[in-house]
Specification:
By secondary structure, the chain is of the alpha/beta class. The protein has eleven helices and five strands; from the N terminus they run βααααβααααβααββα. It has helices at about 20-35, 40-45, 50-60, 80-85, 105-110, 115-125, 130-140, 145-170, 200, 230-245, 280-285, and strands at about 5-10, 95-100, 175-185, 265-270, 270-275. The protein has a five-stranded mixed β-sheet with strand order 1-2-3-4-5, with helices on both faces. A hairpin with a 2-residue loop joins strand 4 (about 265-270) and strand 5. Helix 1 crosses helix 3. The protein is globular and about 60 Å long. The two termini are about 30 Å apart.
């Protein structure tokens, strides 16, 4: 169990709201109903396109079927909630680095009205996106634009909080962990750093557009990508792989580990790297407790 000594987790982590056996069975019954299946043989005979079609129908009803394709902790195949497992120290030998960007879902918000955004968020998160929770979050920072606050709330529940909860569980289990947050607006673009932002820089493939939404003509690296970020991001990823610490001269500062008694986030804003303690503390105090609902 010690072949892996380091891990870089991207694209969020599991949410601290595990699917129950009851919900798993409900989703299974609904899938069989959509497929008109009466036996396992009927299900196994479905063509791939039908499996995708019925799965999308379930996936697109998140209020009725939340987290439809996440694992079920059944006590047998998966004996523990993943957070409980990490807190127990089961992976204390694995150093973990993870993080997200400021505009993970900005592509999904572009061109939509505030009412549409709120409806989508409530559909995704149900009671966690109550009017009380949303208003508390939106009003917590008067200097932040209302639309940006709405999108930050969505990003927190979908990405930032799952990552934070995972790192805290891993840190509680005795491992070194490192947390990053990229807040970057590419030159001439109108979307903040999107999901996948770091990939073309780490791979040094800036000439190949990587789009979350091709219709917006806003690739994740920007239409005029900053080549100076390549050695910075490569240095962090490679440094972590070599030594277990992503900081150093390539970003001009040391990168302290994220610990429960010293909650440090490395923030990269327009190519400048700084370590912040209790980063976005107020936002976190509102949305992190919602992960346990």
């Amino acid at each position: 169990n010690q072949y892996i000594s380091k891990a870089i987790c991207e694209s969020s982590c599991y949410a601290n709201t595990q699917k129950t056996m009851e919900l798993g069975k409900k989703i299974g019954r609904r899938f069989a109903e959509l497929a008109g299946a009466r036996s396992l043989k009927d299900l196994l005979s479905l063509p791939p396109e039908k499996v995708l079609e019925y799965s999308e129908m379930i996936f697109n009803a998140p209020t009725e079927y939340p987290r439809p394709f996440e694992r079920v902790c059944d006590g047998k195949l998966l004996p523990l909630n993943p957070y409980e497992a990490l807190r127990s120290g089961i992976a204390r030998h694995v150093r973990v680095m993870a993080g997200c960007t400021s505009g993970e879902y900005d592509t999904a918000s572009y061109g939509r009205s505030e009412e549409e955004l709120l409806a989508i968020i409530k559909g995704l998160f149900g009671d966690r996106a109550s009017e009380e929770n949303l208003n508390r979050y939106i009003n917590s920072d008067p200097s932040r634009e209302r639309r940006a606050a709405i999108m930050d709330f969505r990003c927190d529940l979908a990405v930032r909080m799952p990552i934070l909860c995972m790192l805290e569980a891993q840190a509680a289990g005795g491992a070194d962990t490192y947390l990053y947050f990229f807040d970057y607006l590419p030159e001439g673009d109108f979307l903040r750093s999107q999901h996948l932002f770091e990939i073309p820089f780490f791979n040094d493939k800036l000439e190949i557009p990587m789009d979350m939404d091709v219709t917006l003509h806003q690739p994740v690296q920007g239409n005029h990508p900053d080549h100076s970020l390549v050695p910075q991001i490569q240095g962090c990823w490679a440094g972590f792989a070599r030594t277990g610490n992503p900081g150093g001269p390539h970003i001009g500062c040391e990168w302290p580990p994220y610990r429960l008694d010293n909650k440090v986030t490395m923030v990269m804003k327009q190519g400048i790297w700084n370590a912040f303690r209790d980063f976005r503390k107020t936002d976190t105090s509102i949305t992190q407790p919602l992960m346990n609902m």
